Structure formats: structure tokens, C-alpha cells
Amino acid sequence: MSARSKRLLSATSILCCIIGAWLAFFPLHRSERFIRAWLLNQVPMGSTLRDVQALIKRRGWRVEHYNPSSGFLKREPGLVTAVVGSQSLECFLGKYQSIPFQVYVNVYWGFDTSGTLTDVWVRKTADGI
């Protein structure tokens, strides 16, 4: 292997490590599906409203809206719009710059009448700058 090939291989390896570390430390850049799985790993289905509120507080996220008498409206492209849960909580996880857009990440938690987690929906919205 030539010296040039070794340098190229080393540079590629370093770049892959940097990208991997970036994705690990900034999960909001990942897909909605990944973020949902990441959240459910921390508070799985069947967790209580208090468990979810504790996670939100621990992470320093901002609660946008809590509705103790209605679920959230799940509006996914290509699917039927539906109300999920009997109670709901919307939380702002954060935002990031994705040129030329600013991407906002929100999560919607749906609970049944006893306050048990029944569904989680992660929604990203982009705003042009």
C-alpha cells in the first residue's frame, strides 16, 4: 500500500469517527424514527406521566403544552390523522441548523386515562432562513 493510500485511508477513518461521534452526541440530527426509539429506550411504553415528566426535567427540555383531557393530533403524511391518547404532552427537544433551514424537533406523548404512556410521535419541522 502506497503512502498516499495510507493517508487517504487514515483521513477517511478519522472522518467516519468524527461523524459517528457527532451523531451520538447530537441525536436530534437523526431521523424521527431513531429519536422515537431513543426516547422509548429511556421511558418505554407503559411508563407513567410522572416518568416522562422526570425525563423532561432531567434533560432540560421545554414543555410546550400539557392537555389532561385530550390526546394529541397525529398528522403524518400519507396516513389518516388521528387523536392519540386521552391525555397528551408536547415537548420541544431542540433545534439545529441544516442549511438553508432551521429544523425544530418536538415530541408528542400520548397517555391513556390512567396516565400510562401509549404512544410517542416525533415531529420535525423546517423553517427557511
Tell me about this structure.
The protein is of the alpha+beta class and 129 residues long. The chain has two domains: 1-30; 31-128, no CATH class. It has three helices and six strands. The chain has helices at 3-25, 32-42, 49-59; strands spanning 62-67, 72-74, 82-84, 87-98, 101-111, 117-128. It has a four-stranded antiparallel β-sheet, with helices on one face. The longest helix has 23 residues, at 3-25. Mean pLDDT is 86; it is low at 19-24.
Short summary:
The chain has 2 domains: 1-30; 31-128, no CATH class. It contains 3 helices and 6 strands; from the N terminus they run H-H-H-E-E-E-E-E-E.
Radius of gyration: 19 Å
Count of folded domains: 2
Secondary structure class reads alpha+beta
Largest sheet: 4 strands, antiparallel
N/C terminus separation? 47 Å
Poorly predicted runs are 19-24
Strand and helix map with partners:
Elements: H1 3-25, H2 32-42, H3 49-59, E1 62-67, E2 72-74, E3 82-84, E4 87-98, E5 101-111, E6 117-128
Antiparallel strand pairs: 1-4, 2-3, 4-5, 5-6
Which features would summarize this protein structure in a list?
alpha+beta, 2 domains, 4-stranded antiparallel sheet, two-stranded antiparallel ribbon, 36% strand
